[in-house]
């Protein structure tokens, strides 16, 4: 009697269990069919909107198009989330190393880029003799004062030619070049060279300031370090010898500007730093790095860089010590015109800057055409 009742109970349990499973399966199948019918209605609406005619059936291509739209919609939502995060970080691109950018302990004070050309070996040797330390001294300068110094040059239009090979050999000897693989070294491409220099420099070193000088400029690094420390409280500083000037619309003349019509009836450039020597703070250099593919290039380097600064909240700093004057922290190899002015400045520098005495006499002789 007990065994029969137990068998009846087991049979009832199995029957109940199968009923529940069947019920759930029916709901699942009904739900899928309902979802599929909704998709079919949506796809037919898409076809009506696209062709104006209601289709008799929904084929495989229609389904793939629908699922592709769903994937694209999901990806769009992800991109919107990434964009919101980028806005909160100041539109910092994914290739910027955030740890490197925020690590102040490993940050240098300045990166100095000395613009040079293939045929300027004599100028580079003169700069090395006068104010750039060599070998171990160059590394000592980087460690003690946090100053990186490199000659900046692009590639030859004829890749791998003798000019490039000479630079490679010179770099092996001195280890003081920053070679811009994305730039073709030409005199009319200096604006692009500036953009490439700041992009590569920011990617290579994290520094508070990025400095550009020509290879005809003799710089007092100690005075430059003092000057940069005095601007450490200005995170958006564009420092230089600020000037304006006439826009030259006549083709064939020196400093011709092919986009002269953009500068209005007055044909005057906006205020900008002279191209021979200027300084950008870290945030401005990073701005060029992040937006380098969108920055417009005018005919000249200094005006191009000045135009990049116009739409930003930037401190335009006119610094007399970066101009050619008695308070300057360096001086140029001046042309033979204005000999008296050139001579008086060189005499001043030889009397004031003891470690520049040799440079001073060299330039005195140059001013006098000796």
TrEMBL record:
EC number: 2.4.1.-
Claim: Membrane is one of the keywords in the record: yes
Pathway(s) it belongs to: Protein modification; protein glycosylation
Gene3D superfamilies attached to this UniProt entry: 3.90.550.50
UniProt keyword annotations, A-Z: Glycosyltransferase, Golgi apparatus, Manganese, Membrane, Signal-anchor, Transferase, Transmembrane, Transmembrane helix
Pfam families membership: Galactosyl_T (PF01762)
InterPro entries reported for this sequence: Glyco_trans_31
UniProt keyword annotation of Transcription regulation present: no
Needed co-factor(s): Mn(2+)
Family: Belongs to the glycosyltransferase 31 family.
Protein name in UniProt: Hexosyltransferase
Species of provenance: Ceratopteris richardii
């Amino acid at each position: 009697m007990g065994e029969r009742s137990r068998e009846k109970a087991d049979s009832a349990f199995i029957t109940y269990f199968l009923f529940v499973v069947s019920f759930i399966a029916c709901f699942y199948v009904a739900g899928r069919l309902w979802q599929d019918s909704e998709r079919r209605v949506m796809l037919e609406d898409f076809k009506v909107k696209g062709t104006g005619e209601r289709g008799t059936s929904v084929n495989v291509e229609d389904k793939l198009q629908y699922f592709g739209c769903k994937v694209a919609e999901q990806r769009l939502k992800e991109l919107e989330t990434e964009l919101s995060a980028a806005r909160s970080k100041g539109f910092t691109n994914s290739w910027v190393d955030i740890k490197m950018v925020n690590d102040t302990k490993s940050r240098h004070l300045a990166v100095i880029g000395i613009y040079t050309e293939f045929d300027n070996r004599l100028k580079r040797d003169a700069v090395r003799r006068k104010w750039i330390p060599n070998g171990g001294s160059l590394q000592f300068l980087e460690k003690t004062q946090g100053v990186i110094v490199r000659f900046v040059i692009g590639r030859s239009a004829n890749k791998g030619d003798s000019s490039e090979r000479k630079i490679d050999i010179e770099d092996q000897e001195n280890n003081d070049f920053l070679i811009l693989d994305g730039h073709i070294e030409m005199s009319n491409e200096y604006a692009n060279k500036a953009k490439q220099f700041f992009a590569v420099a920011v990617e290579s070193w994290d520094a508070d300031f990025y400095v550009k000088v020509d290879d005809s400029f003799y710089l007092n690094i100690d005075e430059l370090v003092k000057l940069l420390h005095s601007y450490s409280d200005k995170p958006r500083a564009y420092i230089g010898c600020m000037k304006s000037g006439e826009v030259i619309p006549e083709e064939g003349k020196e400093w011709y500007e092919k986009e002269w019509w953009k500068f209005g009836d007055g044909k005057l450039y906006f205020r900008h730093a002279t191209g021979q020597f200027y300084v950008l703070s870290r945030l401005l250099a990073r701005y060029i790095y992040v937006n380098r593919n969108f920055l417009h290039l005018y005919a000249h380097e200094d005006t191009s860089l000045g135009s990049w600064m116009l739409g930003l909240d930037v401190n335009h700093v006119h610094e007399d010590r970066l101009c050619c004057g008695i308070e300057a922290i360096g001086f140029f190899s001046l042309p033979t015109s204005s000999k008296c002015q050139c001579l008086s400045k060189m005499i001043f520098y030889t009397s004031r800057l003891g470690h520049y005495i040799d440079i001073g006499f060299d330039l005195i002789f140059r001013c006098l055409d000796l």
